[in-house]
TrEMBL record, chain B:
<feature type="domain" description="ABC transporter">
    <location>
        <begin position="5"/>
        <end position="229"/>
    </location>
</feature>
<dbReference type="InterPro" id="IPR050166">
    <property type="entry name" value="ABC_transporter_ATP-bind"/>
</dbReference>
<comment type="similarity">
    <text>Belongs to the ABC transporter superfamily. Nitrate/nitrite/cyanate uptake transporter (NitT) (TC 3.A.1.16) family.</text>
</comment>
<protein>
    <submittedName>
        <fullName>ABC transporter ATP-binding protein</fullName>
    </submittedName>
</protein>
<dbReference type="GO" id="GO:0005524">
    <property type="term" value="F:ATP binding"/>
</dbReference>
<dbReference type="Pfam" id="PF00005">
    <property type="entry name" value="ABC_tran"/>
</dbReference>
<dbReference type="GO" id="GO:0016887">
    <property type="term" value="F:ATP hydrolysis activity"/>
</dbReference>
<keyword id="KW-0813">Transport</keyword>
<dbReference type="InterPro" id="IPR027417">
    <property type="entry name" value="P-loop_NTPase"/>
</dbReference>
<keyword id="KW-0547">Nucleotide-binding</keyword>
<dbReference type="InterPro" id="IPR003593">
    <property type="entry name" value="AAA+_ATPase"/>
</dbReference>
<dbReference type="GO" id="GO:0005886">
    <property type="term" value="C:plasma membrane"/>
</dbReference>
<dbReference type="InterPro" id="IPR003439">
    <property type="entry name" value="ABC_transporter-like_ATP-bd"/>
</dbReference>
<keyword id="KW-0067">ATP-binding</keyword>
<dbReference type="InterPro" id="IPR017871">
    <property type="entry name" value="ABC_transporter-like_CS"/>
</dbReference>
Amino acid sequence: MFWRQLTVLILGLQEFLRMGWLNPPTSINLFSNLSKVKRSGDQDKPRTLPNHPSLIKRTLSPNILAPAVVGVFAIAAWEIFVRVTNMPPYLLPGPILVFQTLISSWGELFPSLLVTLKVTLIAFIIAAISGLLISVLFAQSKWIERSFFPYAVILQTTPIVAIAPLIIMWLKNDTFLALIVCAWIVAFFPIVSNTTLGLNSVDHNLINLFHLYRASRWQTLIYLRLPSAMPYFLGGLKISGGLALIGAVVAEFVAGTGGSQSGLAYQILIASYNLQIPRMFAALFMITLTGVLVFVCLTWLSDFLLREWHESAIKREN
Amino acid sequence: MTPTITLSHINKVYANGTIALQDLNLEIGASQFISLVGPSGCGKSTALRIIAGLGQMSSGQLEWGQGQTPKLAYVFQEAALMPWATVRDNVRLPLTLAKMPKREAMAAVEESIARVGLQGFEKSYPRELSGGMKMRVSIARALVTKPDVLLMDEPFAALDEMTRSRLNSDLLSLWNQLRWTVIFVTHNIYESVYLSQRVVVMADRPGRVVADVIIDEPYPRNEEFRTSIDYNHYCRDVSRHLAEASLKGADRDLPIATL
């Protein structure tokens, strides 16, 4: 079962790489660029087109190679340390044992991963939409922003561990919903805060221009403020993606739900009760990997959307 | 038909007490090319913003010849382009905001882009363009509404000399074809004399008009004019007025370096 899913994952990743990775806007530019020189105007600069070096070359680039080497060394050191000191597995299991456990308990762990992932994604999508709407509302009037922004901050700074029991108690008929609410609370603030900043950081000359051409409030929002805020919004999404996962895991810990709807946090909890430490590590590894994947996907999305114009997503030529 | 513009007794005082404009009186004829020249802080940009309706005057009156406000276009010192939009979409912006149907708008956009010589760059993004080309896009965007009055606030100040003189010539030939009223703000004496029929010299603290020099030279003006004795006379005349104004203010608390 594990291997079949692994194959599917690898095939999916390959598809992803083919679409995005092979043509990422922010890969470092080690390789010569094709330059397409256009008709010359005054001080005309040549326009550069992205190049497509081979996958092997990309994999051997320092961006990937350097952290990979560090990772291999760390894992090797960990395994050696465990073997040399004869560390019992219930204190610190070696990476090989963790990997073996991951494979042997895949049948229980994978469904849990899907539950956690479902909570994370739903909460994240709701956070993205609600965050955007709230910041658009804030941008409409300084008074609305002044009146409500502090409460968004309060919601953010209250530790989720402390309010999760309350939310779970209030929504005791629907634990799944409670988990989503908790994850949403953690995830929505970076989006609101970033997007609000973006909506307010519009080029002054462009504001004047819109004023001169008698643009309506709605037109200014659609044609000027939202596009200006786009990089900020996407930056918010990147932070929020990881936070939604953390929120979901924390809430699951507090809820401690079992049965068919149990997520990875519950698996960790149970494994720790039973001193199945290798299994705990395996679940932990899955959560971390999920978080990284969420981040990579969002980074790719951001680079893809901003590739034509924003500094963050543009290749440098020197 | 481009209207005349009459500014009478316009004063502008900022909240901190700075007098940006003191009793500004100007009468600008139809299709006139007029420059406002002066040191920074003399209120020339403020005057332009008031004419554009982007700033409020403290007192005074602004009148348009034909009674109704004409179509205005404004070119800023920075190109002020939307970085996320292509050249075509940037130029189209004023028409988009006016809700003009796409086909009609596109025709006007193509025409405007051709006028500033940017054919072939319709699909480029601003970051792919040089400073001079960005400014051309900005001018194309101003032209696309077929304005009666073109207000330009130091549009070429950030460009190098070669690009600037090229854009100056192109602007003049556009003006010869289209004959809008142009109010051109600059701190460059040579540029103002080369371009305009009339140079209004302003001084700072408080911002006021100190001279009104008529450049009585025929158009089209070419490179020959730029090297002629007459041109030099006009430049000397304008800079004499500027120097006199700043000498009169020499007893102010300015460090010597600025004189």
